[in-house]
Write a structure and sequence with these properties.
The chain is α/β, with parallel strands linked by helices and 461 residues long. The protein has helices at residues 3-16, 50-57, 72-81, 85-88, 104-109, 150-165, 206-211, 218-248, 281-284, 320-327, 343-346, 416-434, 447-456, and strands at 25-31, 60-62, 65-66, 95-96, 114-118, 136-138, 171-177, 255-261, 266-267, 273-274, 285-286, 288-291, 309-311, 315-316, 356-363, 375-382, 385-390, 396-400, 441-442. The protein has 2 domains: 23-355, Alkaline Phosphatase, subunit A (3-Layer(aba) Sandwich), CATH 3.40.720.10; 358-456, Arylsulfatase, C-terminal domain. The protein has 13 helices and 19 strands. The strands form 5 sheets. It has an 8-stranded mixed beta sheet. Helix 6 packs parallel to helix 8. It is globular and about 60 Å long. Mean pLDDT is 90; it is low at 300-304.
């Protein structure tokens, strides 16, 4: 056991209590398509996320958390394996998560945890390899864009909490909420959006919206953002119901709660609606909140405030699995992870974080007949600078995120010395990301699956 892990274990023994009958439970909540800047505790002016905000006030919030890819399958695969998409290879529409991958659920199941998952996205179903390690895996709410899935996800996840609470084993529950993904629904009782704006009624398909991209008015774009905020607020109610149920069952004092997202969303900031095409902040920067069992009070007063503890160092969600393991007392160094544990950062033992953040998108059809806009991009974030390379065109962009958080001024043409300094860092990060790459599996999509993916915006008309 490495020294830092030994120190963490000693801290956790004091925090959880040596007489605790079971190790901490783990509740992992992933909200699909949740932009960080549309969440209250991340600065949004609208009351979209009171439950998430309360969770952040009781825990630790990463101010600058980044996913490894700008769409669901590779991003979630990185979270649950600790590997980058270049290594886990679940990074295409037709790819499946290989059985050779070791997932968080498998690790915890093999250590005596009861494991359950509730998902609502077609890309996370068992036939795509995402049920590995789960004794129970509910995917009945993965029914496409028109299905309002939050109530069903909450109900099934609460049922699993009942089942786990009645048992004697610690548990790991993964709850995935999908409703903030397009298409958006206007929910009664949430009055952020009007009945329509300009040419838009809210019933448009994603393809219909994209056909209007060139001349969508600011009023129409505002209407889409309002509907999106309604979906976030509606999903937040489901999260609150689930967390309240955990409290009613007396689980909070011994449950590690982690909430994050798989990617954000574009509202024509770069001329597009949706995701998958770029590695800008609006797509790869997401919320990441960790609530320790018992809340911050179990760690004493250090760093506490009405907003919880805020960690401002850039971090990657590739670190999610090793971080969870170390926080519940399992040494992550015994496994092959490309992300490093951030438990020491969360517990206040260190103020340092990984120096380079890496993200990638390799979005292309394995089946050449699928209508996909090919995208091959890599990005690194180091210090205040971010470099994005388009592997299709060779174009390089560099942004100073401190001076230009909206990534509007590309410094590459005027700062060639900066490009020369950052490109080797990108190459090194990509080499590390591809180390030990598994043999990726592929399954041919059915016509029904193709149509569902088209309705989600993953395929063109």
């Amino acid at each position: 056991m490495r020294p830092s892990t030994l120190i963490t274990t000693m801290v956790l023994s004091a925090v959880w209590g040596c007489g605790s009958p079971t190790p901490p439970n783990v509740l992992l909540i992933v909200v699909d398509t949740l932009r960080f800047d549309h969440v209250g505790c991340y600065g949004h002016v609208r009351d979209t996320s009171p439950a998430v905000d309360r969770l952040a006030a009781e825990g630790v919030r990463f101010e600058r958390a980044y996913v490894t890819a700008p769409w669901t399958k590779p991003s979630v695969a990185s979270m649950i394996t600790g590997l980058y998409p270049s290594a886990h290879r679940a990074n295409q529409l037709e790819s499946i998560a290989s059985e050779s991958l070791l997932t968080l659920a498998e690790i915890l199941r093999d250590r005596g945890y009861a494991t359950g998952g509730v998902v609502s996205a077609q890309l996370l179903t068992a036939k795509r390899g995402f049920a590995q390690g789960f004794e129970i895996y509910r995917e009945g709410n993965a029914r496409g864009v028109k299905h309002v899935s939050t109530p069903g996800v909450t109900r099934k996840a609460a049922d699993l909490l009942d089942r786990f609470a009645a048992g004697e084993r610690p548990f790991f529950l993964f709850a995935h909420y999908f409703d903030p993904h397009y298409t958006y629904t206007d929910h009664s009782g949430i009055d952020f959006a009007r009945a329509g704006a300009g040419r838009l009624t809210g019933d448009e398909t994603v393809q219909e919206l994209r056909s209007l991209l060139a001349d969508l008015s600011q009023e129409e774009l505002g209407f889409l953002r309002d509907l999106y905020d309604e979906e976030i607020r509606f999903t937040d109610r489901g999260v609150e119901e689930l967390l309240s149920h955990a409290r009613e069952l007396g689980l909070e004092s011994n449950t590690l709660i982690v909430l994050t997202s798989d990617h954000g969303e574009e509202f024509r900031e770069r001329g597009w609606l949706g995701h998958t095409r770029s590695l800008y902040e609006e797509l790869i920067r997401v919320p990441w909140i960790v609530r320790l069992p018992g809340g911050l009070g179990r760690l004493g007063g250090s760093g506490r405030s009405a907003r919880g503890r805020i960690l401002r160092e850039p971090v990657s969600l590739v670190s999610l699995t090793p971080t969870i393991l170390e926080l519940i007392g399992i040494d992550p160094t015994g496994f092959w992870f490309q992300g490093q544990s951030l438990a020491g950062l969360i517990l206040g033992q260190t103020d340092s974080a990984p120096g380079v953040i890496f993200a990638e998108v390799d979005y292309r059809p394995g089946d050449r007949e699928l209508p996909i806009k090919r995208t091959h991009k890599k990005a690194i974030l180091i210090d205040r600078f971010k470099l994005i390379r388009d592997d299709e065109t060779g174009t390089v962009e560099v942004y100073d995120l401190e001076a230009d958080p909206g990534e509007r001024e590309n410094l590459a043409p005027t700062r060639p010395e900066l490009v020369d300094r950052l490109l080797p860092v990108l190459r090194s990060a990509l080499e590390r990301a591809a180390e030990g790459a598994v043999e990726g599996g592929v399954r041919k999509l059915s016509e029904e699956e193709v149509e569902r993916l088209r309705s989600l915006g993953y395929l063109e008309s």
